[in-house]
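Task card 7
Instruction: Convert sequence to structure tokens.
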Amino acid sequence: MGRGARAVGAALVVGVVALLGACGAQEPDVPEGAVHLRSGEPVEVDGLTLTAANFGEESISLIASDGQDYDDAVDLTVGRAGEVKGRTFELVAVDVEGSGDDVVEESGQAWVLATD
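Output:
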């Protein structure tokens, strides 16, 4: 194999690897203002601490704490809103590895939008 063929082969490999990496890194198209949650990582939002848990392909449990009394939780499904700690949140997207019973919960990411 000549130098030119090796260079073309190497360029193709680099291009394919870059393309595959870009595919895995894409985030869903979510509305402006949506809060990005990762499995088990608390995020502060307007006086509440939100944590996402129990990931499914299109669902999560949203846990909220105001730091004053008991935590509150609501199960959310993409496109539907639910109330937690007196606030309404809509689940707009979920991204997980795996499917069905094989969802890797630790890989979960979700985007919620305050609707009130």
